[in-house]
Records
---
Amino acid sequence: MIQQVEHKDRRDIYEYVQERDRVAYETARADLGFDPTQFGHHVTILRRDGLLRREGDDLVVGIEDDFGGGVEEEFAGEDVSFSIRPARQSDLSGLLGVIRDAVEDGNDVVAENIADIIDEEQVLFRQDGVKSRVFFVATVNDDVVGWVNISHPELEKLSHTAELTVGVLPEYRRHGIGSHLLERGLEWAGEEGYERIYNSVPSTNEEAIAFLETHGWEEEATREDHYRIDGEYVDEVMMAVTL
């Protein structure tokens, strides 16, 4: 798991780079007001902990390497070729658009809420002692067309659990993209020590329920009339899988 940045100066540096995805070393130092020795020391610690990388004269968020080793996998289908990789901060606007397009029918309330949160925070990855989240994306010709997100409450009694959302733009469905995204997200979650993964959707989202069941998920519980969608009360179906 990504380490929480407790030292205030190092947290300021990390969040500055995270918001920009990539920034010149000297630009970051000058903007944040550190002297060269002090800044160099903090950056060294952040690089040691895997939170930042140095690429030439630039500082880059290093946590992408922790999320699946930074590996980009390529898949060639009969009709569509695509790649799956850890999301980058620079994917934020494209990812937001994909999530909103994919859930515009109101059938994935959790994913819709995730989109609202990252739109407000303008940060994809989070690890702050309250909650952590990571994203992987599917791309076609470098354009984001799908995602999988794993979010985890930073509570000891829930440390073995996480919540997952996954989705693909309607025009790119039924090409195996969603299955590969789900596999990548669960693989990462298993490597990080999670044991139980959840996904909750409205009962009207029969396609999502069938998709998860096909991949070994089980319906764990139903909360009656949990959602109100377009003025109608809709049950919540709570799906889960054990890793």
---
Amino acid sequence: MRVRERIRRSFTRHLFLKIFALFLAVLLWFQVSRKGQEYLSFQVPVTVSHLPPQLELTKTSPQQVTITLSGPPGLSREVPPGSLNILLDGSLMHEGSSVVHLLPSMVSGPPGVHVDTISPRTVRLALEATIQKRVPLYPQYVGSIRGPFPSFRVTLSPDSALVEGGSHALSRLKGLRIAPIDLSLLTNDKKQVLSVPLTLPVNAQFRIVNPRIVTVTITRISEEKKHKAKGKRQF
């Protein structure tokens, strides 16, 4: 019993000092382990992959978050700007608004890099049902015609386009304009046929299904036909 008592006393004697010494040892180990570490902060985009075909991502708020990385010396060479992003799996997402909590495992990056912080830790996504809609096409012009301004008729073929996107965005879409026709390039030919690409407006939240090219036919109207048309309108 005396041996056990001596062992117990040896452990409990100066207990506070022993705990304090252990705390200092852990703190020292932590400081030493941090030496040689490199820390970097990045603004990275939030992207969503594998969305169901019947859904459209219409809003991500915020579109970028700040992450802090730590790693061995030379980390800045291993992680060039623009090489990182936060990738969310959209395969199980549903229509409506949802809040997603961001995890370090969602950050793409090279091996050996540790994600320390993500700010903010959540993003809000807005998802809408995918629909298709047919909208009319309209010409638009740039430049000016050289010489007297002639009368002409413009026809488009096809005169409408099939677009696809979120239901809310397409409900506000009334039509699309084709690429501008440069009037300064028109000739004196009675009829001219142009192939004009159909492109998306800036920041469009929909896609063009078809067509990609619109055939534009520009037909000059002679003065005689123009006067006849005016005369018919008088009766």
---
Amino acid sequence: MYDMISKRVLDYLTELEQNNDRIWFQEHKAEFRAVEQEIKEAYNTLFTLLKTHDDVDAVKIFRIYRDVRFSKNKTPYKTHFGGSIHRTKPNLRGGYYLQIQPNNKSFIAVGFWDPNKEDLLRIRKEFEVDAQEMRDIMADAKFKSTWGDLEGDELKMAPKGFDKTHTDIDLIRKKQFIFTKSFTDKEVLAPGFLEEVNNSFKIIRPYFNYMSDVLTTNINGESLI
């Protein structure tokens, strides 16, 4: 069981960033396959760790190949590895994400990246009625020291149908509800790195439990499942 990321992963990604073309990639295909296998083992280890304290469904490791069809950046390969693990629906909501990238750019993220319009409205309606539980979760000292502040895209103005002077308009304007935590290369390469990631994921649980309750009930608290 992998509990850390080896230096060859970061070294490979650094070289790929400097030689981001198909010829170099093909010439180093064997090295990529070895690194890819290590990454798969690492993400599967993280999945196993998560399974000890949460109900998660499967690991999705994103491909190294970039979709350049609608991008000005035509380099063919990503210079990071990324993977996500989702909690099991319909009762549980929320997702975990780990990105491995050299030059101190690795990070983990949790939350709701692209809620559908029904979920987004339900979350906003919950905040409109009472956002105190959400604020208490974010204000918890251990939670805040691990995850910092709520992130994500937001509207400049109040959403249609909401009062722009509402005391919780800062939360209501959000379109995404994300928390992130960054890691240095030294931290990524340290023994026990995946345990550290898993421990951070444990601390997000009150937020996930709250959002799961919100998204599986109507505004009156009646179950939708």
---
Amino acid sequence: MQQHARPEPETSRVSAVDALVEQIRVMMNSEGLTVGDSLPSERELSARFNAGRNTIREAIRMLKAYGVVDVRPKVGAVIIDRRMDAVVDVFAFNFDMTEEVFRDIQTFRRMIEIGAVEPLFARAVEADIRGLRAINEMMRSAEGPEERASRDYDFHLRLLSIAGNRTLVHVYKILKPQIAQLMTTGKNVREGIDGAFDEHAAVIDALEQRNVFGFQYHMSRHLEAGLSFI
């Protein structure tokens, strides 16, 4: 009597999809994939994880539902982060730049930017120093307070990135709307532009010389300087 193979239980298929989602997550971390990078193609994922095409597609759909990837024509699955977008939208509302708000943000920045001095000094190399100087020059030559503030933000984000702590970088990106608006203060007058440039240069020099006290001193002065323009 011929026996027919039993169909695979639905729970097994779901478990296979869940397991594949976890494997893809581990792959993203181990290979350093981040927002904007593309996942391997369905064929490559199938070969790598020994999974069927349907399982691959279900896993991609699940990652899309989680807000981790977006499937784009001719590109495939691209890593995104809708969670970050949602948080940024919350912080993107306009707010009054009062002295209290200024001090709150600058105190927070002091805690993370000065607090990151140990890993920053341990990891900074000559290429980082050159990169910071180049961004500082771009800030000074930029046109308009918004563009100068954007380059100012890039400078501080690059500085934090050198420390190698992704959580700090993500938090700094979340606060970009407030920080960028704060950084426009003083960027419409030569005194404010030159002052920010000189303060950045002093911070870079201290970093290059591994002068902890100098770094902390000049960064603290820099974070307080904008208050005179409020």
